[in-house]
């Protein structure tokens, strides 16, 4: 009898895991469930935002998945019972021998008062499109870019967007009439990588962008166009925020977040198993000691695929290493790289490779290999 593996969420983690489990098709049948009809890389939202790509060009449709032993279902997960490994969707029910929760992180823009009414975001495809459509009518003034809550996906992304926004404003002749300020509650852009943090802070300074770390915007007043900090208010003409992130409501309701930090799914950091037998969580929804980023979701999927293979065939799986190469857009077509390793050594390390055209090529290669591996 083949084991039934049910993977909830066909994002970075779910796609990588289903691809790897396809190699075990003699022993495993995979049902991969996602509410959407397509996947979009997080970094493609920057291409949508700055109108470098039309949205349809960056979508990868799940209907193109053809993998031995993998069935994709476009359904919305409504209930997860981890004790019974039983899942209910808007179109059916599933019993899993092994259940993998890879539902990512949801956004909660309403957690910041005033943000829904008066702010813009680019973390969702719709948000990137809305900001893209608003930018042409921006004719100068003050732009605030703020990380509103921790944790958030892809720590470099706010700075990447800032560098690309600077380029956009220069190209459109309004940079000289614009003040840009960045606020973050973090003490540095990428604390694990002092090299990357120094390069980002220097890049902001060289473009005359004000950077204020360790500072949180608490709310915005859309009428007065003021952002409220702890002790002062900052006026703005355009407010761009990184919204608060939460585990999806269906995950919170399942009991899987009990014991996890701040409402994320508790997992054993070495195996990604939750306290429920045969139930795993990978990627952004999991409370593993790594940042929220696709490369770490992919690394977790790699570990779990090995774990499932060793569960079926014996042997020992390697523990999760928390490794991943993060690409950082610096504008001007240059991309830097952070070679992060969170778990395999005595302490996390993340050497930085300076921005270059070669880095941009490497990032393109990264994207095209995933597209080919997951969707061919
Ligand atoms: C602007 C931006 C830039 C980024 N750049 C990078 C980068 O350069 N490198 C990098 O590694 N990461 C980057 N990221 C982060 C990356 O996109 C995420 O960390 C990654 O996608 C997480 O993978 P995941 O599998 O955990 O979740 P996701 O990829 O978010 O997948 C979760 C899936 O679950 C589905 N889902 C959720 N709820 C339900 C439900 N109830 N029923 C059915 N389906 C559901 C969703 O539709 C989604 O497809 C970036 C993110 C952003 C926003």
The CATH architecture assignment of the largest domain turns out to be: 3-Layer(bba) Sandwich
The coarse overall form would be globular
> Would you count the extended β strands for me?
22
The total number of structural domains is: 2
Beginning-to-end CA distance, first to last residue? 28 Å
Question: For the residues shown, what is the average pLDDT?
Answer: 97
Structural class: alpha/beta
Strand content: 25-35%
Looking at the structure, the CATH topology of the largest domain is: FAD/NAD(P)-binding domain
| Unreliable segments of 5+ consecutive residues | none
Bound molecules: flavin-adenine dinucleotide
| Radius of gyration from CA coordinates | 21 Å
In spatial order, strands of the major sheet run: 5-2-1-9-19
Portion of residues within helices: 25-40%
Q: Outline the biggest β-sheet.
A: 5 strands, parallel
Count, helices: 10
């Amino acid at each position: 009898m083949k084991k039934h593996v049910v993977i909830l969420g066909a994002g970075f983690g779910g796609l990588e895991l289903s691809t790897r489990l396809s190699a075990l098709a003699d022993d495993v049948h995979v049902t991969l469930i996602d509410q959407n009809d397509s996947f979009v890389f997080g970094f493609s939202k920057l291409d949508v935002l700055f109108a470098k790509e039309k949205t349809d060009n960056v979508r990868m449709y799940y209907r193109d998945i053809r993998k031995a032993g993998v069935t994709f279902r476009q359904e919305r997960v409504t209930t997860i019972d981890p004790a019974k490994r039983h899942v209910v969707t808007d179109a059916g029910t599933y019993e899993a021998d092994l259940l993998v929760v890879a539902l990512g992180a949801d956004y909660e823009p309403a957690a910041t008062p005033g943000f829904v009414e008066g702010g813009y975001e680019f973390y969702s495809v719709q948000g990137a499109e809305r900001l893209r459509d608003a930018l042409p009518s921006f004719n100068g003034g003050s732009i605030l870019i703020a990380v509103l809550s921790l944790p958030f996906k892809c720590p470099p992304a706010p700075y990447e967007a800032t560098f690309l926004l600077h380029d956009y404003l220069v190209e459109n002749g309004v940079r000289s009439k614009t003040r840009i300020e960045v606020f973050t509650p973090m003490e540095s852009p990428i604390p694990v990588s002092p090299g990357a943090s120094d390069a980002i802070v220097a890049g902001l300074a060289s473009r005359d962008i004000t950077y204020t770390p360790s500072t949180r915007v608490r709310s915005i007043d859309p009428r007065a166009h003021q952002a409220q900090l702890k002790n002062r208010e900052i006026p703005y003409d355009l407010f761009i925020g990184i919204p608060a992130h939460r585990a999806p409501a269906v995950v919170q309701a399942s009991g899987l977040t009990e014991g996890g930090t701040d409402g994320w799914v508790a997992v054993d950091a070495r195996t990604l198993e939750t306290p429920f037998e045969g139930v795993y969580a990978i990627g952004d929804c999991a409370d593993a000691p790594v940042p929220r980023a696709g490369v770490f979701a992919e690394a977790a999927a790699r570990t779990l695929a090995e774990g499932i293979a060793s569960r079926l065939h014996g042997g020992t799986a390697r523990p999760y290493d928390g490794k991943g190469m993060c690409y950082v857009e610096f504008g001007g077509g240059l991309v830097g790289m952070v070679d992060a390793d969170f778990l395999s050594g005595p302490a996390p390390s993340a050497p930085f490779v300076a921005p270059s055209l070669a880095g941009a090529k490497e990032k393109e290669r990264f994207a095209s290999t995933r597209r080919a591996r997951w969707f061919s």
